[in-house]
Specification:
Helix 1 (7-22) packs antiparallel against helix 2 (27-43) and helix 1 (7-22) runs parallel beside helix 3. The chain is an alpha+beta fold. The protein has 2 domains: 7-76; 91-126, no CATH class. Helices cover 52% and strands 13% of the residues. The longest helix has 27 residues, at 50-76. Strands 1-2-3 form a 3-stranded antiparallel β-sheet, with no helix packed on it. Strand 2 and strand 3 (124-126) form a beta hairpin.
């Protein structure tokens, strides 16, 4: 009889899928993939049948390969950024890697104010 997939293999597959999904430049697709990956793993958490586990693991590996191809494809063809992406940009998970400062432009009585968002999450207002 064959043995079940180890927990570390499942965790490794989950992390690889999430890292690949994080590489997608479009916010909507990136959020969709991350949500679907999490939902799929949560829904199948209680599966105890070894044959079913192996089938699910193989589907996960195939999904990882497909996601890698999708990442390459989305990077080849640039997209028009959404309003949210234009104003805020992409906020990286590791804030120390952020090389740009994110800001809002707010108009008050014909005067524009630039509100920068720092890594400490305290807005700094400059004119």
């Amino acid at each position: 009889m064959s043995s079940a997939i180890t927990k570390s293999a499942w965790v490794n597959l989950y992390k690889q899928l999430q890292k690949e999904a994080d590489k997608i430049p479009q916010y909507n697709y990136r959020a969709f993939y991350q949500r679907r990956i999490r939902d799929h793993f949560v829904a199948n958490r209680s599966v105890s049948d070894v044959v079913q586990q192996k089938k699910l693991y193989e589907e996960g590996v195939q999904s990882l390969e497909s996601l890698k191809r999708q990442v390459v494809f989305t990077r080849l063809y640039p997209h028009n950024k959404t309003v949210v992406e234009q104003k805020l940009g992409y906020w990286p998970k590791n804030e120390r890697k952020c090389r740009e400062k994110w800001y809002f432009l707010i108009e008050t009585d014909g005067i524009f104010q630039k509100i920068e968002i720092s890594s400490s999450n305290k807005p700094e207002v400059t004119i």
